[in-house]
Specification:
CATH class: Mainly Alpha
Shape: globular
Number of domains: 1
Order of helices and strands: HHHHEEHHHHEEEEHHE
Strand order of the largest sheet: 6-5-7
Strand content: 5-15%
CATH superfamily: Cytochrome c-like domain
Structural class: mainly alpha
Helix content: 40-55%
Length: 267
């Protein structure tokens, strides 16, 4: 009996030691990007420009940039993609609505802007998660790599901008779904902890759009946030929902000054 107790005590001590080592092997710095939480294999794949699946989306983005089929091309208005490099870190931002009362403003992200541009060019029916839209987002984020996120209000828009930021801040701390968890419980209070086979990151939005291996395709921040709603078993907002834009605004402001790293790979 005593021998069995000693064996059990030894096994429990070993599990405790392994858990400590595992916990210490992941950082808990709130200013780290998701790249710091990738496995060595995914880090190697991401660094391999020739074999990374992201490269296929960048190639498609280059083709879409110059494509004039069905309407004016991006190139015809903006020249080279580098011309918009400084604009990428400033999204989301407030912009006039295409419909509604004059002077009305709507919070939009970069994919929203791409959809609006394609619509103005005569390419009707573009949607946020279309491959063409995502490939252009990937191209522009790739051009902006290394630039710091810089989401700031325009003085004339300050009241509306502040209202959206406050809504996003509140949503980050709001418990949701049957799991009854808020973003803050994972991405501030549990950074570096293991959740199944994933490691929880601070949720800094530096690497979007992301090629997620479980999706087998590129995805926007909009889609990733909706996946979080699904993870806590909450009602999932539709693509482009105002609460998703408010939450993206908060996350971008929270990450102001961090360098853009996207597009990137995630598990």
């Amino acid at each position: 009996m005593r021998a069995n107790y000693s064996l059990l005590t030894g096994i429990l001590a070993l599990f405790s030691l392994c858990s400590t080592v595992l916990a210490q092997s992941w950082p808990a710095d709130p200013k780290l990007s998701g790249n710091a939480f990738l496995s060595p294999g995914l880090q190697q794949l991401q660094a391999d420009a020739q074999n990374s699946p992201v490269s296929l989306w960048l190639d498609k983005g280059q083709q879409q940039w110059a494509d004039a089929t069905g309407g004016a091309s991006c190139k015809s208005c903006h020249g080279a993609p580098q011309s918009l490099r400084d604009k990428v870190p400033t999204f989301p931002k407030l912009a006039p609505t295409l419909t509604g009362s004059p002077g009305a403003l709507k919070l939009i992200n970069l994919e929203d802007q791409i959809v609006a541009c394609r619509t103005r060019a005569g390419r009707l029916g573009a949607r946020l998660d279309d491959d063409d839209v995502l490939s252009l987002s990937a191209l522009l984020h790739n051009e902006a790599k290394g630039l710091p996120i810089n989401v700031q209000p325009v003085r004339e828009q300050m009241p509306a901008w502040t209202a959206h930021l406050e809504a996003g801040t509140a949503l980050f701390a709001q418990r949701l779904g049957r799991i009854n968890l808020a973003c803050v419980h994972c991405h501030e209070q549990s950074v570096g902890k293991q959740m199944r086979i994933d490691v929880i990151s601070p949720g800094n939005p530096t690497g979007f759009p992301i090629y997620r291996m479980s999706w087998q395709k590129l995805g926007s921040m909009d889609r990733r946030l909706r996946a979080c709603y699904s993870g806590v078993q909450a009602v999932i907002p539709p693509p482009g929902a105002p609460e998703l834009r408010d939450l993206e605004l908060y996350l971008k402001v929270r990450a102001n000054g961090m360098p853009i790293e996207g597009p990137s790979i995630r598990r």
